[in-house]
What does this fold into?
Amino acid sequence: MNLSVAEAALPAAEPVMRRPSLAGRTRAGLAEALAEIGVPEKERRMRVGQLWNWIYHYGVRDFAEMTTIGKGLRAQLAEHFTLDLPEVTAEQVSTDGTRKWLLRMAPTGPRDRGAEIECVYIPEVDRGTLCVSSQVGCTLTCTFCHTGTQRLVRNLTTEEIVTQLMVARERLGDFPNRSAPEGAFVPNDGGRFISNIVFMGMGEPLYNFDGVRDAIGVISDDQGLSLGRRRITVSTSGVVPQIGPLGGEMGTMLAISLHAVRDELRNELVPLNKKYPIKDLLEACRNYPGLSNAKRITFEYVMLKGVNDSDAEARELVRLLKGIPAKINLIPFNPWPGTRYECSDWERIERFSEIVFKAGYASPVRTPRGRDILAACGQLKSETEKLSARARLMLEQDEAETAPAQH
Ligand code: SAH
Ligand code: SF4
It folds into this structure.
């Protein structure tokens, strides 16, 4: 059953004249807004600094609270703009503290109801990680990934990426004067609940290079959201020509979705491999700007039963990565309704991990998080394509059958 074909016709939405939101904008974007309402050029830099501090450091949602800005300008701002964040259409909290938010983006046109994307917060002992999306859906069609089956695809704007972090901080009470919600990671050094960001939600971040680069600029700015680039990881399925520029222009950590050690199999699992084969991909990794033992590349390897999980493949993996400062992240496959794959047995994953570990690589097995709310890796798929009642029923039945094995 292919659920992505099920959809309901959307009634034409009424055209609504909305005031644009300033949330998520770059400094240049804020300067443009000020220019639009006639703020003189010589004043703009200072005003941008004030707005920046209120929006990103304090997380205020009302211009009236911006007390360092004169009343007149505050009123003018409120007349033309908002500080709206994407609407949270659903919030789910997993039994393990993982939280998933379904966010509806502002409509891009009169017939658009606003695309939905998902964003996941994962508290761990030593960190709180936010998994963000870079696209609605994904144009790539990795055969083990749920997101790849979604038909509607577009790049998220810089604002839409940045506001995922803002929504999460707001929902977690992670702006100043906060109080910790149940299940949140509480740092003992006075840091923030969200200490790390991974671009491992929906989409291929390197197919949205400019949007992701500018969003990272806003997120890592130390006057505002202040999340260091070393705490941001961009995961790619292997868009080789953009890997060097990622290191040069964004300076973030890099994760590569490798998943196979032979081109024949990787062509099947990650079809982008036909364009950029393993050899070229690893060459780009060896040349990644800033690569060192302190800045290793993470190689992600999804464990698929009987497909890519043999001892020989573990040994080949080690051989391939020789000379690259690397961590290998083994991801137990997260099943989704309709998938043809199964997760490797736990003993197999341990054996595979042991071979990699003995060869000198850290090889943590990523504990599946939030499986009960379909928030785990590769399970994200928004409801943008609304399911018909019949399809939803089939999905529920399917889910009951593919209830995830707990490791
Ligand atoms: N498009 C990017 C980032 C998003 S996917 C990429 O492919 O790297 C984030 C990670 O989840 C990738 O390593 C991806 O291969 C993995 N993934 C996708 N589907 C999965 C599934 N069903 N189970 C486990 N991991 C999965
Ligand atoms: Fe896209 Fe990544 Fe899923 Fe592949 S694994 S379909 S690149 S989101």
User: Anything to note?
Assistant: Residues 86-386 form a domain with the TIM Barrel fold (CATH 3.20.20.70). The first helix runs from residue 27 to 36.
